[in-house]
Amino acid sequence: MKASTQVVRAGRADAAHNIVNPPIYRASTVLFENYAQIFEIRQSKERRLYYGRNGTPTTWCLADAIAELEGGAGCALFPSGLAAIATSILAFVRPGDSILVADSVYGATRIFCDSHLPKIQVKTIYYPPAVANIENYFDDTTRLIFVESPGSQTFEMQDLPAIAKAARARGIKILADNTWASPVFFRPLDFGADVSIQAATKYVVGHSDALAGSVAASKDAWPAIEAAARHLGQCIGPDEAYLAQRGLRTLAVRLSRHQESAMAVARWLEKHPLVTRVLYPPLESSPGHEIWVRDFAGASGLFSIVLDEKYKARIALLYDSLKLFGIGASWGGYESLIYPADPVRTAEPWPARGSVVRLHIGLENPRDLIDDLENALSLMRA
Ligand SMILES: *Cc1c(COP(=O)(O)O)cnc(C)c1O
């Protein structure tokens, strides 16, 4: 089945009384019929209601749907994307290990690695995202590689099949942050990753009204992910799970519109005299374009532009003149957003001198978005 069919159908087996969407079960305590049933349910190999933290039909509906979409053996759910990332790393590392993390990784992932992993004697080494030979970074302590392709803010593509090939030969695990593409456009597990993580907060929820994270894993990696999520008390609230499964049903159709509009806006920006670069992998001029063409089925609506250095002092004018772009963090909802990007680099310096501006292209008419940008950019130039 194609992803656009899967998003509509997957995970709906548990919907009660033939109601289309799953009911919202609010549960901590689950009552047992009698004394013996406590042990029967505890020992059961099947999925049984036991305690709210361990899941309810509301959360199972979403977990099953994402597992199917990502092609995983299972999927664990989290209260945020960051909780999903931190738990996935903790699932595999031991004292004395080191991990390799893409230098273009999401900022909060970097902060987690730098602030918490040293406490358990795990070292983080950052590699340039366009690395040609990842094995040059391997040593006997390398436990896992954390890939994010395209990277946050600057959108460098990574050659996941090449990284996976090198890692597999050494038993190194690969964790991929797949938030940008979602499994509709890219399935990291099919390209050699062991774990695919999403900040479901973004496109899955799709309406800027809930936080959620998901981790789908291969058969080999699933037991470690499932245990880490359970032992660290990770779970998702019933309303968040409900909203995420509801968002999922329209994910494919929303993404295709985000893509179409983002492409129109990006192509227009590419020709604008104030814009020196458009960092968006589906553009031929964007670094890593050939990897995107080879591996991805589409692009979402998030990209960055680099402005001419001459206009650095006037950058606030761009943000403050736009009428249709909200100034806000996060993305993946229906409305367009603008936010400053501030690439933090420790493996290699970020080369551009001009301001980097991240745009999320929402579901508005792209012509209106271009007019809005045209007006704001011309005010900057005036
Ligand atoms: C937003 C984001 C996250 C974190 O998700 P939250 O739900 O905000 O914690 C992780 N990775 C990427 C690429 C993101 O954009």
Automatic annotation (TrEMBL):
<keyword id="KW-0456">Lyase</keyword>
<protein>
    <submittedName>
        <fullName>Cystathionine beta-lyase</fullName>
        <ecNumber>4.4.1.8</ecNumber>
    </submittedName>
</protein>
